[in-house]
Specification:
Blueprint (H helix, E strand, L loop, with lengths): L6 E6 L4 H4 L13 H17 L5 E4 L3 H14 L6 E3 L16 H8 L1 H9 L11 H21 L4 E5 L1 H11 L4 H5 L1 E2 L6 E5 L5 E6 L4 E2 L9
Parallel strand pairs: 1-4, 2-3, 2-4
Antiparallel strand pairs: 1-6, 5-8, 6-7
C-alpha cells in the first residue's frame, strides 16, 4: 500500500458567529457566518481540485463543524459517504470563559491570566479543559476509530475545531505543546496528510497557508 492510499484531510470549520464576535465558544453551538459558509465552499473547491474521493468523514457534535462538512461533501458530490458524529472531536471546553468576549475576560481575570489559559498546554480555565485534556479524548478516539480506517487504505476527512485538530496535529507531527500552540489554524483551510504504514506523515500539504499566532483575528484583518 502506498502512502497516497492513506490520505487524511483535516479542516477547521468555517468562521462561526462567535468567532466573528471574538467570543470564547468551546462547546457552545453557534452557526456559521456568511463568511464561514463561503470558507467551507472554498475548502470544498480546493479539495475537488485535488480529485480526492473520500471513503468516510468524521466530525464533532457541534453545528459549525457539521455544516462545514455538509457544504464540503455537497460541493464534492460525495454526500452519501458514511459520516461519524463524535463528541471526542468537539472543541476544547472553555468552562467559565464560554460566551465571554476575549477583552471582557481580560478585564475580569487580567490579560496575563487569560493568555496563560489560552496558550498553555496543561493549564485549564475554571471549569474547562486544557489542550492536554482535549488531547486526552481526541487521541484515544483517533487511534481506535480513525487510524484503523486509514490503515485499511480509506481516504478520511475530519472536520473539527481549532483545538481538537491541534491535539491531533501535535501527535501526528510529534510536536511539543509549545510548538503546537504557536500554530494558528485558519478557518476553512484543508490540510492534507499522506501517512506511512506506521501512521507517521510522509508529507503534509496546506491548501491554504497557516496563520501566525501573532496575526490579528481574521475578522479584524
Amino acid at each position: 500500500m502506498e502512502p497516497a492510499d492513506r490520505q487524511l484531510v483535516l479542516v477547521r470549520h468555517g468562521e462561526s458567529e462567535w468567532n466573528r464576535r471574538n467570543l470564547f465558544t468551546g462547546w457552545c453551538n453557534p452557526d456559521l457566518t456568511e463568511k464561514g459558509l463561503i470558507e467551507a465552499l472554498v475548502a470544498a473547491r480546493m479539495l475537488r481540485a485535488k480529485g480526492i474521493k473520500f471513503d468516510v468523514a468524521y466530525t464533532s457534535k457541534l453545528k459549525r463543524a457539521q455544516r462545514t462538512l455538509d457544504i464540503i461533501l455537497s460541493e464534492l458530490g460525495q454526500e452519501k459517504i458514511p459520516i461519524v458524529f463524535e463528541e471526542a472531536l468537539n472543541e476544547r471546553h472553555y468552562g467559565d470563559l464560554c460566551g465571554l468576549n476575549k477583552d471582557e475576560a481580560k478585564q475580569r481575570w487580567g490579560e496575563e491570566q487569560v493568555r496563560i489559559w489560552r496558550r498553555s498546554y496543561d493549564i485549564p480555565p475554571p471549569g474547562g479543559e486544557s489542550l492536554k485534556d482535549t488531547e486526552d479524548r481526541v487521541m484515544p478516539y483517533y487511534n481506535s476509530r480513525i487510524w484503523p480506517d486509514l490503515a485499511a487504505g480509506k481516504k478520511v476527512l475530519v472536520v473539527a475545531h481549532g483545538n481538537s485538530l491541534r491535539a491531533l496535529i501535535m501527535n501526528l507531527e510529534n510536536l511539543t505543546g509549545e510548538e503546537i500552540l504557536s500554530r494558528e489554524l485558519a478557518t476553512g483551510a484543508p490540510i492534507l496528510y499522506n501517512l506511512g504504514a506506521d501512521g507517521v506523515p510522509v508529507d503534509r500539504n496546506d491548501l491554504l497557508p497557516s496563520r501566525s499566532i501573532d496575526a490579528p483575528p481574521e475578522d479584524m484583518v
